[in-house]
């Protein structure tokens, strides 16, 4: 990573992280945000939209990547300032979301329905998604490439962050 050698790059990455943290705290289920709360995007989707959210397709990787990037940023720059109260609030928000989604059918209020689209671009069962059973893993249905996720994945390493 160039961040250890170029302060401008390090500052840019830190800014990206701060923005991602802010977005996660606004809505951990959203995968795409507007730069400002201007109401652009898929505001007609049947889900809990807000003007800052462009699209609200829940993806685990939208929550994982900022944590991974923060780790890589720290390893490259030795800048611990990224691990502040905001960071730990983000981690708590992510873990809370994943805990709810471990029992998606029983505990989750997340719904997503988009009208007049192909099936991979919406969720069946009134936007709730296919029925699930308890496995201990967290539920997800969309990926960044906008395809349905058929396997449910968990990321236990994130829990290690809370130990430090």
Automatic annotation (TrEMBL):
SMART domains recorded: DUF1237
A GO BP entry: carbohydrate metabolic process
InterPro entries named in the record: 6-hairpin_glycosidase_sf, 6hp_glycosidase-like_sf, GH125
Transmembrane segments: none
Pfam families: Glyco_hydro_125
Record protein name field: Uncharacterized protein
Species annotation: Metabacillus litoralis
């Amino acid at each position: 990573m160039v961040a250890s050698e170029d302060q401008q790059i390090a500052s840019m990455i830190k800014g990206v992280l701060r923005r991602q943290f802010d977005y996660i705290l606004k809505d951990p289920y959203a995968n795409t945000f507007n730069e400002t709360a201007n109401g652009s995007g898929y505001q007609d989707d049947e889900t809990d939209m807000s003007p800052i959210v462009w699209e609200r397709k829940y993806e685990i990787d939208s929550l994982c990547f900022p944590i991974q990037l923060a780790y890589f940023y720290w390893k490259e720059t030795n800048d611990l300032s990224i691990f502040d109260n905001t960071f730990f609030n983000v981690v708590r928000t992510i873990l809370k979301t994943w805990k709810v989604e471990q029992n998606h059918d029983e505990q989750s209020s997340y719904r997503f329905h988009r009208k007049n689209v192909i099936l991979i671009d919406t969720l069946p069962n009134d936007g709730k998604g296919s029925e699930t059973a308890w496995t201990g893993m967290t539920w997800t249905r969309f990926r960044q490439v906008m395809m349905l996720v058929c396997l449910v994945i968990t990321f236990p390493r994130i829990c290690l962050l809370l130990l430090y």
